[in-house]
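Entry, Tuesday afternoon. Goal for today is a structural model of the target with flavin-adenine dinucleotide bound, before we commit to ordering more compound. Inputs were pasted exactly as handed over by J.K., no edits. I checked the ligand SMILES twice against the vendor sheet because last time a stereocentre got dropped in transcription.
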Amino acid sequence: MVRNLDCIIVGGGLGGLTAALALGKAGYKVTLLEQSEKIEPIGYGIQIGPNIFPIFKEFGIDQEILQKAHLPSALQLVDANTAEMIGNIPLGDRFRARFKYPYICIHRADFHMILLDACARSNNIELRKGVTVTGYGQVGDRAIARTEYHGDIEGDIVIGADGINSRLREQMHPQSKLQPVGYVAHRTIIPFDQVPDIIRQDPVIMWAGDGYHVIYYPMPNNIGMNFVLVMGGESEEPATGHEARRAQILKRCTNGHPEMLAVLKLMDFTSRWKLADRKPLKGWSDGRTVLLGDAVHATFQSLAQGACMAIEDAVVLADCLGNSGEDVSAAFMTYEKLRRARTARVQLESRDLWTVYHVGGADVESRNTQFLNRTPDDFYDCMDWIWTEVEW
Ligand SMILES: Cc1cc2nc3c(=O)[nH]c(=O)nc-3n(C[C@H](O)[C@H](O)[C@H](O)COP(=O)(O)OP(=O)(O)OC[C@H]3O[C@@H](n4cnc5c(N)ncnc54)[C@H](O)[C@@H]3O)c2cc1C
């Protein structure tokens, strides 16, 4: 182990907090810098694959996570125009026998709070809120996080976990640009008593339409149903405000099945998030600064693995540092080597799936036939490379 390693983490998202836990557990001193005055996530649901469950166990937070989680019975893909179920991935006993751990849905705020509480229990971790990092530097073998109003903060290494618009990545790779696709996401949580029974179902259900998809699942502990609409067509003049957006969206989906339209009618369209990914990137570190999570491999949501990849990065990075003696750059090289192919595959397959989910016209039949021919085991085989626990 590198003794007394002093680690600066930039960003208190799911990746940064997991890195803090992993490094703190290894005995390193951690200072986490988060730009927000309050470390709080956008308050919607998130799906978590079985691949990162062993990490929760390692940190002793698996039971807390399970208490706050919904364990859906299946992932179901439905044709948005005909309501035909074209794909069904059971997540019960058969899934558990193969992948060992559950597939869960959890409120991001609950997930974040569990990680924050675990950080607070560690004497090695200091969380500093309201600190915006503007870039990184290095003097001799000291790494520096440059901040807006708090001067330079020094450590042995700086970890950029500052998300899709990472300033650290911008400095390291100014040529790496966001790849927008002209899609936006709308998210809503609706109390159960306002959701008709036909929609209030246990599985994660995704309706795939021409240029859009709708996904929903129940949240545990009476939180309500979590709905996400992802829609393309940004070239169209975007409407503003809930009512105008709703009218525009319903017009775009006139061929949609009445049940799917009923889902859209429940949603609140006041807020929206532009979606983008990046091309896989080589060179995740520069001297004593290294990147993780969305900062280095932002992806579309098609495989619901962006946060999972950030969390895996965090534990692998901590492990590489632990195994590298005094040699930080060797640790960073090994970390990138262990992580790049897997995260690049998530990015590339997510882009491909994005196209498949959103086909229209004659392509719909071909897409549906491909999915309809798959058994649960075929789906498990397709997802095996992601859902099998990662070794670190
Ligand atoms: C609609 C939608 C649905 C999704 N669903 C899923 C899902 O079901 N499953 C899944 O695994 N993933 C999902 N994702 C992806 C997931 O949200 C991200 O991949 C994940 O949050 C990335 O974590 P991160 O820690 O790398 O970055 P972030 O979560 O973006 O955290 C970055 C943190 O850094 C802070 N920060 C930024 N800049 C600075 C700065 N200059 N100085 C200091 N602090 C800074 C930010 O405030 C933030 O707290 C979804 C994404 C979207 C948009």
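The mean pLDDT is 95.
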